[in-house]
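Crash report, auto-generated. Payload:
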Amino acid sequence: MLYNKYLKMHLKSSLEYKANTIFLSMAQALIFIGEILGVWLLFLKFEAVGEWGFYDSLLMSGVVMTSFSLMECFARGYDEFPNLIKNGTLDRLLVRPVNIHYQLLGAKIEFSKFLRIILGITVSIIAIINMNINWNILKIIVLISMYLSGCIIIFGLMILCAGISIYTIENLEFTNIITNGSKELAYYPINIYKKWLTRIFTFIIPIACFNYLPLSFLLETGSIPLWLCGISPFLGMLFIIPCLIFFNFSLKKYQGTGT
Amino acid sequence: MKNINISIFKMQFKKELQYRAKAISGITTQFFWGIMYICLYTAFMSSELINGFTITQMAAYIWLGQAFFSLRYPGMHSNAGYEIEQGNVCYKFTRPINLYNQWYYEYLGEKLASALLRFLPIIIISILLPTNYGLSMPVNFSSFILFIVSLIIGCLLCVSISMFSIYFTFVTLSQKGTATIIVAISNLLGGSIIPIPLMPNSVQNVLNFLPFRYISDLPFRIYIGNIGITDGLIQIGISLFWLVTTILIGKILIKKALKKTVIQGG
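Recovered output after restart:
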């Protein structure tokens, strides 16, 4: 399969510079550790925020970091889409007889994100061990679906930003609010924020679907019906559909940036 | 000698001013991050009050941080890092100027220009926002003056700490990795990830002994009145000490690195 070839090629190329890849992944893991320490320090000072404690936030950080790093690793092509437009690589991809999404997924695979994925999973495990959850099959399914939903929603956001960059061409900083901003918000259960902000990130960008909604299902708390919380991760996955439609529509309008 | 350094600074400054679209997009970004952080910390602070740091002060702290974003964190002189990685730095060796000074002034120009392009719109918009969301006025005139003084020292300190990243690039030959590490450390210890007044007291005591919080935390807290005039003056003294120390160590390290550099091939 073509994707396997892509995968092998990227793995080989990152292993060429072994020391560099390791150093870089350690540096990036350090940023994540710093952010987690920030969350911890805040909870040392305040103990709780609303109904949530430190380990609830830690699980949220773990979920968002795992899914975000997974997507940064395997869907990097969308992240770097503005560069593909600027240096004309996109035109080259478009004339090939392979689906553009398939090529973008193979365009770049960053193995230096692996350490962050591992850290994200570790953090989640630490949180889950320290939380009081009465486990049953349904809850395990919801827990796994949180990660899946996180991946798909973040993937949707990356596709959305790539779509926007077809119009702006330049890799403008403000698209980073959409992806990185959502990520940063999701370090905490997002219903701690002001109502309007929570609503935006529930109904427009469905961060809540891998955040406090399934969390309240796991803990059996909150005022929202539990069945709705339980299926919310699956509802959130639908977010990728409008993103894909927008991207494909924009790509049809794409005229190239000249040579 | 002074003249060369000043013209280096001017050149880099003008170069940065070229990127206006980048600045506008940056301002929008900073604005949204500011709102987001204020919402986050308001959520924490409304559940429990802490002494001497109100929500209004917190909002001002966040806005100052967004306005002077580029002066907040030590980073990597982009050109120098690239040149060291690629080996082009050897051309610099042939020139009769002090490399440390050149990099210092270039990076200072880069930082100042990007701050000057961004800070005014953010300050104006954030002053117009309602209380508890917006930027409040400085507590009094003398603390405003002290704020300016400490901000200037903080900016110089930020650049002098950034110079270490050039040294570590000589050692590791990976500018991206080095820059990431320096930013990660200074963000946490300097109060960019969470404001230092929101950290536990024991942690705050430790951070007082490190240079990072004197970059931006000190000026911002003087502005909002969290640190008084006399305390402020003492701490400005400490930040001056750190400025001199970091420059001296930086100069020694860069000199050492330059001596050790081996240039292969041509």
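Post-recovery validation: Chain A has a mean pLDDT of 87.
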